[in-house]
Structures are given as C-alpha cells and as structure tokens.
Amino acid sequence: MLFLFETNKIQMKLTKNGLWAILIGVGILLIVLSPQLRLRWDLSEEKKFTLSESSVAVLQSLDGPISIKVYLGGRNLPGGFRRLEKALLELLDDVRAQSPQRIDIEQIDVYKTYPKEKDRQALIFYLDSLGIPPTNVVNQEDGQQVQQLIFPGIVIEKSDRQAAILLLKGNKLTSPQEVLNQSIEGLEYELMQGIRQVQDNRERKKIGFFLDHSQVPAIKQLDLIAQLKKSYDLYPVDLSQSLTLDGLDAICVIQPSIKFSTEDQYKIDQFLVQGGKGIFFLDGVRIDTLEKQGLIVTPQDLGLQNLLFQYGVRLNANLVKDAQLCGAIPLAVGNFGNQANLELMPWPAFPLLNGNPNSVITKNLDAIYGRFVSSLDTIQSGQSLKRTALLKTSPYTQVQKTPATLPFSASGKEFDPAKYQGGSQVISYLLEGKFQSAFTNRILPTEKLAKPFQAKTDQAGALIIVADGDIPLNGIDPSTKAPLPLGFDTFAKHTFANKDFVLNAFHYLLDDQQALLARNKNVRLRPLDKVKVKEEKSFWQGINLAIPIAFAGIISLLVILYRKKKYNA
C-alpha cells in the first residue's frame, strides 16, 4: 500500500509538472506569434480603430506591393505629436493586416538617420518639394527651450509611382491640440487618398474645363491642374463649338469673364439633368483699379445667374467684407526717412472662410483664403435638390452693394462693430439630386439640337457653386515669376486650405462617395478638468496609494487564513 501511495504521489507530481510545462510552452508560443496575430475589439465610442468599408475596398483592390516611409518619428517628439505618431502606426498596422499585398513600412527618425546638417537640409528640400514642409516646435530639454523640426508626413511608393501625404491638417484658427486632433481624425482618409494615387488599375474620370469663357492666365492654374492630373483626365472644352458635353464626368469653370449664351446655358443644363457633375467658381462682381486711390466694384453679368436661379440659388452682385477673419495686404502708413513705411494691414475684402464641419468636403479644413467674394442665397424653386452650405464667413461682416468704391485708406482702421452686422454669409453651396431642366416651358435654342430635350431624368447630378473665382487660383512669385502653391499667402507666409477644399470637392463629385466617409470619424478630446484636478489632487493621490496597499493586505490575509486552516486541520 505504501508503494502504491508513493507511486500516486509521483504520478501527480509528474502530471503537475507536465501541466506547467504545457502552460509555459503555450505562453512562449503566444509571445512568438503575437507580432503576427492582430486580435482586438474596438470598444471605442467613435470606432476610431476600425477601418471603413471603403478603405478595406481600396486595400483589396491593390494589385502589387507598396512601401510607406513615415517621417514622423523620434524619441523627443512633443506629447501631441506622439499621439499623432501612435495613431498613425496603429492605422498602418490595420492597413497592413487588411491588405492582400505586401506593405513595407519604414519609420525614419530624421535626426538619427541624417545626423549631418547638410544631408538633413537636402531631405528638408526634398520633402518640401513633395508638399511636406517641416513644422518647427519648441521643446523643453534640461530646463532649456530647444527648437526642433518635425516632419508630419509619409511618402507612399509603388513601382514608379509616388504620393506624398501631409498628415498635419486642421483649422489653424483653433488650438494646437484641436489641430492635432483633427489631423488624427483625417489620417485614414489621407492615407487612402495616397494609396489610390499610386494604383494603376483604377478608372480615371474625365473633367472638362470651359477655357473659352475664362481669361485667367494658365500659370495661375498650374498647381490645380498638376494636382488634378494625378487622379483625373483633363480636357479643354470650347462650349460654343461642342454640340453636347457627352463623354465628360464633370465640368468646371474658373472665374469666367465672358457671358454664357443661351445655347451654352442649355448645354450645361442638359448635362446636369442627365446626371452630370459640375463646379463653378464665379465672381459676382468685377474689380477695377483706380490708380493710388482704391478699387471700383461693379456688378458682373455672366449669364449663369438665371440658370442658377432656376436651381434655387442666387448669386448676388455684392461684396462681402469680414472684419473679424480676413487677410492682410502691405500698405504705406507713412514715411521712414525718405522711404515709404510699408506694413501689413487687415484687408476686410479678403475674408478667411470657414468650412461646414458637418460636410465631408470641408470637415476639419483650415481656413480658405477668399478675395473679393460675393454672397449666395437660396430661394424657393420647383427643384427638389438638397442644398448644403460649404463655406461661410464670420458673423462680423459688411455686405456692400454695387456699384461702389473700395478705398485703400479703409484698410487697417479700427473695427467698428456697428458697421459690421451683416451676419454670417454663405459663399459656397452644394446642390445634389435630380435636376429638372431650367428650360422647361421655355423656347429652346434655335440651333440644331444634338439630342432630344430632356426635362428630367432618373439620374442624380451635383453642382458646387463658389462665389469667388480666385479660390482655385495660385499666386505668382513677384521676384521669380514662378507659380506659388495654391492657397499660399505671400504676405502671411501661410498656406491656407484652398487646395484641399477644391480637391475634396472634385473627389466628392467624381469618386465613390463612400471613400470620403472616412472623414466623418470623430475622435473626441476628453481633457481633465484642471480646476477639479487641482482641488481634488490630494484625495485621488490618497486613493491611488491606499487601494493597492489594501488590496495587497487582503490577499495576504486570505493566504494566511488558508494556510492556517490547511495545516492546522
């Protein structure tokens, strides 16, 4: 019996040892496989860790491997940028897990990889030429303030194709933390747009530009054309010589100055009725310079006002001035010795426009730089179109009727609230739905019609109207005569969101709109109440100290009681 008892003890010991060995082996296996396994549940309210269906579709359509170089990195990143970096790396892990093709991700610490100043300057020039300018931040190191350049961008490469993505995007009129939060919200959309750019197998839509109605120099459209050519095929259109607009997916007119004839309006109308898309950048007024005195503002008849009126939108022949949010221009404010003293003075005729936060086109965009804008109104019409305001001014505006003069001496004067009570003015509208022809019950153009007249169809179209023809135009460097980036203000040395707004508008109209739903993600900031933290600091410190000690004491007491009961029995 003693032998059997000892044998059973040995077997139980071996069984326990085997169980421990199995558990240790499983633990080691999980540790080894953990980098390859990505199992998690998104319990966040905003579902910020879940890729949208459109993003998964983009990844599934990849036809070859891609590489992504991340230039946002380094151990000395400030807290906000570390949060942006963490969100980006987590997103890239999700993207790599969902892609059927290989995705190589390389994170580059610029200061570590390029320790020499000469090499680092060459990289800065290279990234800046791609559209990823460095961001200068100030860090506290050893009690001293140290300036550091951060590169919030990625470069996506596939074969001979390349796309550069600037990650730090947001409304600069908000706090830096809000800008970083808005940038995190837009990470998925920006990344997907970059991946779409390097794909070879995607269908390219066709955009027609009405060049015969606009006298804008080509050099002022270079940046816009260069950006659009990455995703679309562009065609010049002579509307007077084209019987129809068939074959185009969208039409665009930029700052027209030649009146549209009735025949031209009819062609545009039939294009929209048949499900076409359009973007019109229109000036409601004409600006002429009166030498050394100021500007003369007069109404401008483009021939499109009647067409838009039938669709339920009125382009007003006025000038909207904004005293709260506006650009600045250099003006002579006196003499400094024998030289004119030039200073930047606020110019209310150049309002900074805010985007609609509820639209995927304008959500989280920086301010858009406007020049001599007019207002848009909605009116009752027989159209059942959905109308969405995209761009607005601040509430402190003055709506100046035309004809009028705008003297330079008005710039920089102290803001008088009594003169700026026009309220927030809408500068851009999106119309979408089934367009009904504006020529219903009207005499049709006398020229031979290429196709039968259609009063309405079952196809939904869309039209974006912007009451400022300057928004899609880039400036020109006065010294080199070279084109500047779209939205860049030479005086403030800041690039506004004009380019992002225009590109988002085209993407919304022409691409699968599901792709833009990634811009709808909300990542809320949940900051601590600083006053409550200060008042209750000692209480919560005591709680954090007492609970672990009490928990450890209870566990120890239970162990002692268990051992006492077991060995005293």
From TrEMBL:
<dbReference type="Pfam" id="PF23357">
    <property type="entry name" value="DUF7088"/>
</dbReference>
<feature type="domain" description="ABC-type uncharacterised transport system">
    <location>
        <begin position="204"/>
        <end position="505"/>
    </location>
</feature>
<keyword id="KW-1133">Transmembrane helix</keyword>
<dbReference type="InterPro" id="IPR019196">
    <property type="entry name" value="ABC_transp_unknown"/>
</dbReference>
<keyword id="KW-0812">Transmembrane</keyword>
<feature type="domain" description="DUF7088">
    <location>
        <begin position="45"/>
        <end position="156"/>
    </location>
</feature>
<protein>
    <submittedName>
        <fullName>Gliding motility-associated ABC transporter substrate-binding protein GldG</fullName>
    </submittedName>
</protein>
<dbReference type="InterPro" id="IPR055396">
    <property type="entry name" value="DUF7088"/>
</dbReference>
<feature type="transmembrane region" description="Helical">
    <location>
        <begin position="18"/>
        <end position="37"/>
    </location>
</feature>
<keyword id="KW-0472">Membrane</keyword>
<dbReference type="Pfam" id="PF09822">
    <property type="entry name" value="ABC_transp_aux"/>
</dbReference>
<dbReference type="InterPro" id="IPR019863">
    <property type="entry name" value="Motility-assoc_ABC-rel_GldG"/>
</dbReference>
<feature type="transmembrane region" description="Helical">
    <location>
        <begin position="539"/>
        <end position="562"/>
    </location>
</feature>
